[in-house]
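Recap for those who missed Tuesday's class. We walked through two folding examples back to back. For each one, the amino acid string is listed first and its predicted structure tokens come directly after. Nothing is annotated here on purpose, so try labeling regions yourself before you check the end of the notes.
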Amino acid sequence: EGLLDKDRRDNRSIGAHGADAILGGLPGGGPVTLLTHCNTGTLATAGYGTALGVVRALHQRGALSRVFCTETRPYNQGSRLSALELRHDGVPVTVIADSAAAAAMRLRGVHAVVVGADRVAANGDVANKIGTFQLAVAARHLGIPFYVAAPSSTCDPTLASGDLIPIEERPGTELTQLGGVLLADPEADVWNPAFDVTPHELITGGIITEWGVFAPPE
């Protein structure tokens, strides 16, 4: 129960620090449109969330215009879980295909991308749900700040860089089937990594923890 309370407090701190940083980087201070990936909310934490904690903090301040949730293929944590949570809380949310993320950044007025993390290496490289790396590349190209929200317990100082983070590979049937319905050639070769590593130089907004936001030079 103590860990439960601490996680909720930490998540609320992450949300507040992230909201301050995002609003502080915008002329006029909002309202803002965000894009997020996978699920980082109540269903993934003890409550409130990390990246979705930032979303919730902005919404509670009346400073959120909309959040775009990638569906997060192949397991659809964004469309199944994040969108469900946010609609439950009355947060304006739009589900997009993973392949529409760069277009949404360019055409739908996205001010910042905020994602979670499964592990942060000592140099700031971040492992997160597959698809995070390509979001960071697109955000860098478009000049949109890219933030990672994670508690300090996610940071692993024993790993010098993200190259040392082991990446789980999931069953190929997650891509070739959906609910037992065949979507592709069952004999097709499949590569289905569950995570990817985003190099620290692409985390242009910073890493948000319960201690504050660590900017790229830090």
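Example two. Treat it independently of the first, because the proteins are unrelated.
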Amino acid sequence: GQSYEIRMLDNRKLGELPEINGKLVKSIFRVVFHDRRLQYTEHQQLEGWRWNRPGDRILDIDIPMSVGIIDPRANPTQLNTVEFLWDPTKRTSVFIQVHCISTEFTLRKHGGEKGVPFRVQIDTFRENESGEYTEHLHSASCQIKVFK
């Protein structure tokens, strides 16, 4: 539930991708499993989490703290995903909150579980001719572990 800042920066070289000048881009944030073993069972793992925590989400945006994000959305069926539009020419910071902890996905032994690493993955897209954000621009990720 703690809010963590991720700064969105336009790191294009001069003259690169001039077609996005003055346009908004869409970024999609996802919390996924870092370990390949858990990636294969991700759907079942998330369904189990949903069953144990009805009404909760894995990932949210702290909207009051965020700067420069437009039309933030959280799809009710995708508990680990949020998205928003932003202008690459303006200062943009998104504050995210992860509501699950790394030990929720480890087999319970007798305390002191190591906890599984997650990955925050960010995919950014630009608009196509039809006005849909489907043209991939950039992907980034970092590993996180969440504990209380």
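Answers for example two:
The mean pLDDT is 91.
The chain has two helices and eight strands.
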